[in-house]
DNA sequence: GAATCCCGCCAGCGT
DNA sequence: ACGCTGGCGGGATTC
């Protein structure tokens, strides 16, 4: 049986769309450097192939997983968010922590939380802390919405235009009026906007809300039979149940899969004494050093494995076939300072309120998606 | 061209 | 002052 000689590097960077184009050369260089290094090491009887299973650099090389927008959508994010919490009856959510865990901008977590607040499954505790009160809470809240008498009063503590209030209104529409709505129709019904721009904004927000509600199965996408217009349909408890079941099923599948593949997750090597790049100029250098370390680490691993194998063979006098061992290495990317849009002439007033993620989890993939398009 | 919605600016508010 | 929160709309992406 041949051993898997690949290094899997999930190299992750924050995406900045206006950077796509200026980044292309950097990526190209980085790729070359990477290959050169790998070649250098391959002399040492390690045949190292590169597997960019998530993103790769050219059409020839790629086992290619294109960046797609869906992976970063509120719907997916919300799914992940809820998945993290679904096993808890009660849990304090630390915003920093969940932000890091999901590798996403803080701002997006607010969106999800605000919408989930309308289902009363999440409540703000204090700065940075929210409280998750169990998935079953959603069932109870729906009951309350269905009951027109017990009018959920969310408006007292929230601004009228908040996502929470809008979301609550949207849910009420489904539960108390009819089960299918187009977003435009709902936007008009929820408040009496005359201004077209304001209406457009409200529709945008309803998209956000719809995506979160959809993520947990409460509503689903559909079309009006009459006009064929896209719309959303209430699914309710059945949908929630299905969401839960699917999640559990997937979890189980993943577990068995993981055992089968024998994936070892190796902690990120700490890159010390290396200046973290403050610009993309030093990006190559940094990544290069990371790669060196990873390769070194893999060499060590392999040495150990071989020694172990020999030891066992000597002991047992029986040949041992080691299972295919795939290791996933991760480079935690450095924080890259990102110049703000050149277009805007107004100087930035307040740096502190940007929602820069704590770790830049995403995505060279997106950059590379662009890169490939432009080959 | 319409539908969709990611992204991040920046105001507002609590501490 | 500071930084958390979240309203908002530009414009990219997908249909």
From TrEMBL:
* Region of interest (Disordered), residue spans: 336-365
UniProt GO molecular function: DNA-binding transcription factor activity, RNA polymerase II-specific; RNA polymerase II cis-regulatory region sequence-specific DNA binding
Q: Where is the composition biased (Polar residues)?
A: 343-363
Q: Which SMART domains match?
A: E2F_TDP (SM01372)
Q: Which UniProt keywords apply?
A: DNA-binding, Nucleus, Transcription, Transcription regulation
Give GO terms for biological process.
regulation of transcription by RNA polymerase II
According to the record, the segments passing through the membrane are none
Residue span, E2F/DP family winged-helix DNA-binding domain: 69-134, 158-236
Name its cellular compartments: Nucleus
Lineage: superkingdom? Eukaryota
Q: Which InterPro entries match?
A: E2F, E2F_WHTH_DNA-bd_dom, WH-like_DNA-bd_sf, WH_DNA-bd_sf
Annotated Gene Ontology cellular component terms? RNA polymerase II transcription regulator complex
Q: Which Pfam families match?
A: WHD_E2F_TDP
Q: Which family does it belong to?
A: Belongs to the E2F/DP family.
Would you tell me the protein name for this molecule?
E2F/DP family winged-helix DNA-binding domain-containing protein
**Which species is the source of this protein?**
Paramecium tetraurelia
């Amino acid at each position: 049986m041949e051993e898997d000689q690949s290094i899997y590097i999930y190299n992750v960077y924050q995406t900045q769309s206006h950077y796509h184009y200026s980044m292309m050369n950097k990526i190209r260089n980085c790729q070359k450097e990477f290959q050169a290094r790998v070649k250098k090491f391959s002399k040492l009887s390690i045949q190292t192939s590169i597997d960019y299973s998530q993103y790769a650099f050219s059409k020839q090389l790629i086992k290619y997983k294109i960046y797609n927008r869906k992976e970063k959508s509120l719907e997916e994010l919300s799914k992940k968010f809820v998945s993290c919490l679904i096993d808890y009856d009660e849990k304090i959510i630390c915003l920093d922590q969940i932000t890091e865990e999901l590798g996403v901008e803080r701002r997006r977590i607010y969106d999800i939380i605000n919408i989930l607040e309308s289902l009363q499954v999440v409540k703000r505790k204090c700065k940075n802390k929210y409280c998750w009160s169990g998935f079953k809470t959603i069932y109870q809240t729906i009951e309350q919405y269905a009951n027109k008498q017990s009018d959920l009063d969310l408006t007292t503590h929230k601004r009228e235009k908040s996502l929470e209030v809008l979301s609550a209104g949207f849910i009420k529409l489904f539960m108390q009026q009819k089960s299918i709505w187009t977003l435009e129709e709902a936007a008009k019904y929820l408040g009496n906007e005359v201004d077209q721009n304001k209406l457009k904004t409200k529709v945008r927000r309803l998209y956000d809300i719809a995506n979160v509600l959809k993520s947990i199965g409460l509503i689903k996408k559909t079309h009006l039979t009459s006009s064929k217009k896209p719309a959303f349909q209430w699914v309710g408890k059945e949908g929630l149940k299905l969401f839960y079941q699917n999640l559990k099923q997937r979890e189980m599948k993943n577990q068995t899969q993981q055992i089968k593949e024998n994936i070892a997750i190796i902690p990120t090597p700490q890159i010390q004494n290396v200046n973290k790049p403050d610009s993309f100029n030093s990006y190559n250098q940094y990544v290069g050093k990371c790669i060196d370390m990873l390769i070194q680490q893999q060499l060590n691993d392999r040495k150990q494995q071989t020694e172990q194998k020999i030891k066992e063979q000597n002991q047992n006098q029986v040949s041992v076939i080691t299972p295919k061992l795939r290791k996933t290495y991760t480079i935690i990317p450095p924080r890259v300072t990102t110049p703000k849009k050149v277009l805007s002439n107004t100087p930035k007033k307040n740096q502190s309120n940007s929602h820069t993620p704590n770790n830049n989890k995403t995505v060279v993939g997106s950059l590379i998606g662009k890169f490939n398009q432009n080959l």
